[in-house]
């Protein structure tokens, strides 16, 4: 065996002027060399010798080998020496996102039209915040395990409730399918699992390997059922808003914790009725932010309620291309926009979230693509949860101001009004954290 390191180092000297920046390697010298170095050459002199040759030793590994810094061509030269192996000291990354469908969640991370979730997650994933999801209720799904607080079922009409009674403490979605001729539709319609899809966008578990990640996976969600077969009544919605914001509703036990934000992904054409106007005003006064979808009628948002009610954050939808989605409502009363998908096209250009295979009742928990302004609103609600996790003292109006101030310009076309722009979770939470630090 030859004494390899000095020779290798001599070779290395030639290439120290190379321009490539050094990388870290683990070098294994032949066993005899190692023994000789250990026996007869003090470590310090070996290292000094190495240094004059341009090889920068870092330390000796307990499991064998030397950690050194080398330029690429130096490493190649060293590797050509008999008995020497050179391995790159690989840079390992933590497995922060292991959920198998993450890559398909373009609305979370797409450089152009995504909401920049990972930047926001440097600060918070929503711990301590509570979102109330007023919708069709909820189905059992592994993505919701440990994510829910006790909810309520506000559907008061027994015929549309489909669970055998009026209001009750179980917000499970029994399915909102309809028979031919029901609900004004000639054909039969399958259950939409609308509330389940919305809930996943906010609180689907992170790091459980299965499926997707919600934008606020450490927040808690209160499932509140207000929509049954053929939809729901404004009176039930008004009561649900009062209840979720910590107000008193006769005959209903109080909510376990006032919601930081109330998501209302529903609407109908008409003015803001006084019962909803009052419920929203009172909810805001108690400290709950109310987020609504702008609606899918291709009309001015002021024609759709409760998106046209004073004080709500009204959310329009962007398509995969970054322009306003073809179906989205628009106009001056839109607060800001969020990804909502293309709706007509089935698949990848829509919004992937939790879903159920049941055509009528619950069957199997899966993931499915849906779209619409309905899907855009919960992304904003989840961002509000992140903001209130980062700063529990942030007020209702300040939430709106920060959402607006930190929205990005719409990446595509929106001539008719998409509000302040595309919601930006990263920039918004960053601004909230900075603001709080300035105050404290
Ligand atoms: Ca019921
Ligand atoms: Ca029920
Ligand atoms: Ca998951």
Characterize the structure shown.
The protein has 440 residues and is α/β, with parallel strands linked by helices. The protein folds into 2 domains: 4-88, no CATH class; 102-439, Peptidase S8/S53 domain (Rossmann fold), CATH 3.40.50.200. It is built from 13 helices and 15 strands. The strands form 4 sheets. A 7-stranded parallel β-sheet has the order 6-7-5-8-10-12-13, with helices on both faces. Strands 2-3-1-4 form a 4-stranded antiparallel β-sheet. Helix 8 (194-203) packs parallel to helix 11. The site of one calcium ion has 7 residues, from loops.
Topology:
Blueprint: H1 4-14, E1 23-28, H2 31-40, H3 43-52, E2 56-60, E3 66-70, H4 72-79, E4 85-88, H5 106-109, H6 117-121, E5 130-135, E6 152-153, H7 158-161, H8 194-203, E7 220-225, H9 234-244, E8 261-264, E9 268-269, H10 274-285, E10 289-293, E11 304-305, E12 313-318, E13 336-339, E14 351-356, E15 365-370, H11 373-390, H12 396-405, H13 425-439
Parallel strand pairs: 5-7, 5-8, 6-7, 8-10, 10-12, 12-13
Antiparallel strand pairs: 1-3, 1-4, 2-3, 9-11, 14-15
Helix pairs in contact: 1-4, 8-11, 9-10, 11-13
List keywords for this structure.
single chain; 440 residues; alpha/beta; Rossmann fold; 2 domains; binds calcium ion
Bound molecules: calcium ion
User: Based on CA inertia axes, which overall geometry fits?
Assistant: elongated
CATH homologous superfamily grouping of the largest domain? Peptidase S8/S53 domain
What would the average pLDDT be, to the nearest integer? 89
Strand content: 15-25%
| CATH fold field value of the largest domain | Rossmann fold
Query: What is the CA-CA span between the terminal residues?
Result: 67 Å
Q: Spatial order of the strands in the main sheet?
A: 6-7-5-8-10-12-13
Family: Belongs to the peptidase S8 family.
Region (Disordered): 160-180
Keywords: Hydrolase, Protease, Serine protease, Signal
Biased composition (Basic and acidic residues): 160-170
